[in-house]
């Protein structure tokens, strides 16, 4: 400490000298230092973008961008552009043509070409196709977190917000939507030229457009049109559009009322995308939604209905939290997700008065967060991020599901009114700008005497489930706590005997969760938990508790497969339990059945489209049945394929079916070739389809022959991260490992981990999270 005063000024001097040179090294990605340097120097940023898009995904697109900005100091400047030199066709800086110096994913603009004050850079280029998600009849751009720099030259960092104008040259019969409203379109021959209104200031990751053959449903919100773009053809699904709009309208009303700020963007349009890789993405004016989450089947369960509403409310809440006020850097991405999650749960409540919301929150947040937080790959809520190229790996259950639990603690500490006033102050102060988590804590701090900084350090900066002292009674009955509650033998016996007689659904769910966590840590065996789960499933009236109990059966199945299969069969046939529980049991049975008699029963259900009495199956259920039956009945495969194909009337769903089908082949050589094809990025561009295919290749019934896929799938992870979207690395490894339940598989994963001691830590976390059930079962953690 004594030397501190002497060291400190020297350090300041060195930092000041470094800042004067103004030059960050040209390294791949977007480093934190480069982002900081540019945020200081650049202001008044505008992008004028133009893309020309051919109908066929085989033909390349072309693009041109003019970037206008003010520079506070002269010196070299790096534009981010990942496709490299071959994709840059022309560069002019402040009116002077020059050859482009392209290095390490950047176009380096020499200092002598730039001036203090206004500057203008124009680049013509070939965009990379990957972030455009080009399909035969449509496309949509998806740039979060750092893929804007793959699509066009830009300053790809969330704190350099810009106004965007866009012009699209597209096939004449296509339509298009972007952040700004479409202005007059011009036709020439077989092409159409559309210009869009300039956007309000947006970070690069929220710029977006979609184009193609989309149908448009239009609604009116107090004189403002809301358009829903979609490709659905089934009349029963189309009939859900007014309900989808009604929920959007409710969510907007709720957020406007709570925040005191009218919708902060000029329009609310959305696109319902087939085969979308996320649940949703909150681009203002062009929100993207996953088709299978938005259009529900014939008899949706409460869980499916809640999940759709939650998704709509989540993306809508982002318009305020994330879109209007944006994190400065992606280490704080959780600050937008936590509010979207927190408010989605609040907005959903009045729409489902029959649902117990403490139970819903515990199920949506605690149970999902525990899945990652109990693993060796868990992380803190706020994670350090040195380069934007790793930002996608920050996302996960901790960011989405643990953070709302933590936020509820904060809201309870402040009280509802102070919490709301603090958030209103935060929104007003940073509207259309950027903010950090410490900046929010500073504001909230004024509304409470509690020590928020210590609290924040404990819950936000540190990782893992807090472990409480061993309890001799039932712990966390309120379901408001978070963590691992070790139970004594006495407490476990009491819980097993009394869980179904506890009065409140959240008491039953919390107790089940505690039993499950204690089972995973060896305090009781799966065989002991099974009769308790059975009793819950036979007696439980609350759909959320029942569906969680069914989820817990999945782990018990690893240990007692025959008993679990028999239980599911009994539940699916039982006339005494709620239809939703029966349906969920039936769906589980379809996936894991091995009994020949059950297989024959399911075959009759599928063939005649005649479900068991009282069950209502959806078209998607028959599709899943077709795949699971094909796996078990190789001789009937061709019949199954042609009949199931004839039942599918929508072109997008047919394309998906044809894509997935070869992964079911009884011929190992065919499956090997499917697996090899998945190692090529171009063949896995529609990520949900690729994941379905990978999961079927590694189906429990084929796991012995699929052992050899584990190492190449692990080896591919870095490439998956490089070429895929945010959730793909984790989903890829989950799909690979989910069907494996052998000591050989556990040993393969263990030795792969041991052979990669210096693996990139954020990516390693994903593997450790996904491998946890397998490694835990065989004592290889
Ligand atoms: Zn979100």
State the main characteristics.
alpha+beta, globular, disordered N terminus, binds zinc ion
List the helices and strands and how they pair.
Elements: H1 4-21, H2 32-41, E1 42-52, E2 62-71, E3 77-80, E4 88-93, E5 96-97, E6 101-103, E7 106-109, E8 117-125, E9 138-140, H3 148-151, E10 163-171, E11 175-178, E12 182-188, E13 191-196, E14 209-212, E15 215-221, E16 224-230, H4 235-238, H5 241-259, E17 270-273, E18 280-281, E19 287-290, H6 291-294, H7 302-317, E20 326-327, H8 333-351, H9 357-373, H10 397-414, H11 416-430, E21 434-435, H12 437-445, H13 452-461, H14 489-498, H15 505-520, H16 526-539, H17 543-559, H18 561-573, H19 579-592, H20 596-608, H21 619-632, H22 637-647, H23 651-660, H24 668-678, H25 687-697, H26 703-706, H27 710-715, H28 717-723, H29 728-737, H30 743-754, H31 761-777
Parallel strand pairs: 1-10, 16-17, 17-19, 20-21
Antiparallel strand pairs: 1-2, 2-8, 3-7, 4-5, 4-8, 6-7, 9-14, 10-13, 11-14, 12-13, 15-16, 18-19
Helix pairs in contact: 5-7, 5-8, 7-8, 8-10, 9-10, 9-15, 10-11, 11-12, 15-17, 16-17, 17-18, 17-19, 18-19, 20-21, 21-22, 24-25, 25-29, 28-29, 29-31
Bound molecules: zinc ion.
Zinc ion is lined by residues 314, 318, 337, 340.
């Amino acid at each position: 400490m004594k030397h501190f005063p002497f060291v400190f000024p020297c350090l300041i001097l060195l930092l000041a000298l470094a800042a004067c040179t103004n030059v960050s090294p040209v390294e791949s990605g977007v480093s934190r230092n480069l982002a900081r340097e540019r945020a200081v120097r650049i202001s008044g940023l505008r992008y004028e973008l133009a893309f020309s898009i051919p109908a066929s995904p085989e033909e390349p697109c072309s693009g041109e961008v003019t970037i206008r900005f003010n520079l506070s100091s002269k010196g070299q400047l790096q534009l981010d552009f990942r496709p490299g030199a071959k994709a840059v066709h022309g560069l002019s800086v402040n009116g002077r043509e020059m050859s482009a110096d392209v290095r390490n994913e950047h176009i380096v603009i020499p200092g002598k070409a730039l001036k203090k004050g206004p500057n203008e850079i124009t680049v013509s280029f070939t965009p990379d196709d990957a972030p455009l998600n080009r399909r035969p009849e449509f496309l949509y751009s998806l740039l979060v977190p750092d893929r804007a720099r793959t699509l066009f030259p830009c300053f790809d960092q969330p704190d350099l917000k810009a106004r965007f104008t866009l012009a699209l040259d597209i096939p004449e019969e296509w339509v298009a939507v972007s952040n700004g409203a479409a202005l007059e379109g011009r036709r020439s021959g077989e092409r159409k030229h559309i210009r869009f209104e300039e956007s309000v200031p947006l970070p690069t990751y929220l710029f977006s457009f979609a184009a193609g053959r989309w149908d448009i449903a239009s609604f009116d919100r107090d004189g403002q049109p809301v358009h829903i773009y979609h490709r659905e053809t089934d009349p029963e699904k189309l009939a859900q559009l007014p309900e989808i709009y009604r929920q959007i309208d409710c969510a907007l009303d709720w957020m406007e009322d709570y925040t005191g700020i009218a919708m902060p963007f000029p329009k609310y349009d959305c696109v319902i995308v087939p085969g979308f890789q996320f649940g949703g993405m909150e681009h203002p004016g062009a929100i993207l939604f996953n088709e299978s989450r938005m259009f529900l089947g014939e008899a949706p369960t409460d869980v499916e209905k809640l999940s759709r509403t939650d998704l709509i409310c989540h993306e809508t809440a982002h318009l305020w939290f994330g879109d209007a006020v944006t994190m400065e850097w992606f280490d704080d991405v959780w600050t937008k997700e936590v509010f979207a999650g927190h408010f989605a749960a609040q907005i959903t409540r009045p729409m489902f008065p029959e649902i117990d919301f403490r139970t819903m929150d515990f199920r949506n947040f605690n149970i999902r967060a525990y899945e990652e937080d109990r693993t060796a790959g868990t992380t803190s809520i706020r994670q350090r991020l040195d380069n934007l190229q790793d930002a996608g790996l920050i996302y996960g259950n901790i960011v989405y599901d643990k953070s709302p639990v933590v936020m509820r603690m904060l809201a309870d500490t402040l009280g509802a009114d102070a919490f709301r006033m603090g958030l209103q102050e935060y929104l007003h102060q940073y509207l259309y700008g950027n903010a950090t988590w410490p900046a929010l804590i500073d504001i909230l701090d004024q509304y409470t005497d509690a020590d928020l900084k210590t609290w924040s350090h404990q819950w936000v900066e540190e990782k893992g489930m807090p472990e409480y002292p061993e309890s001799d009674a039932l712990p966390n009955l309120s379901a408001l706590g978070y963590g691992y509650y070790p139970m004594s033998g006495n407490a476990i016996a009491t819980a097993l005997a009394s869980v179904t007689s506890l009065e409140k659904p959240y008491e039953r769910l919390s107790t089940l969760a505690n039993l499950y966590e204690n089972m995973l840590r060896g305090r009781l065996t799966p065989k002991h938990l099974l009769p308790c789960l059975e009793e819950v499933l036979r007696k439980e009236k609350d759909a959320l508790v029942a569906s969680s109990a069914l989820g817990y059966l999945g782990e018990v199945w690893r240990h007692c497969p025959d008993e679990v299969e028999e239980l599911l069969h009994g539940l699916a046939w039982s006339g005494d339990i709620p239809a939703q529980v029966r349906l969920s049991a039936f769906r589980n049975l379809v996936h894991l059945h091995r009994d020949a008699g059950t297989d024959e029963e399911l075959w009759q259900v599928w063939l005649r489209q005649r479900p068991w009495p009282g069950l209502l199956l959806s078209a998607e259920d028959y599709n899943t049945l077709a795949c699971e039956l094909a796996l078990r009945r190789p001789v009937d495969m061709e019949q199954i394929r042609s009949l199931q194909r004839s039942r599918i009337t929508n072109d997008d769903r047919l394309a998906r079916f044809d894509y997935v089908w070869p992964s079911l082949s009884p011929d190992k050589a065919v499956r090997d070739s499917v697996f090899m094809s998945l190692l090529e990025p171009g063949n896995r561009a529609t990520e949900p389809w690729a994941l379905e295919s990978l999961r079927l290749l590694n189906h429990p019934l084929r796991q012995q022959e699929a052992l050899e896929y584990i190492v190449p799938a692990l080896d591919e992870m870095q490439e998956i991260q490089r070429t895929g979207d945010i959730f793909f690395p984790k989903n890829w490894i989950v799909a690979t490992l989910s069907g494996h339940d052998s000591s050989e598989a556990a040993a393969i994963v263990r030795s792969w981990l041991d052979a990669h001691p210096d693996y990139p830590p954020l990516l390693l976390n994903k593997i450790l999270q996904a491998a946890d059930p397998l490694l835990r079962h065989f004592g290889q953690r």
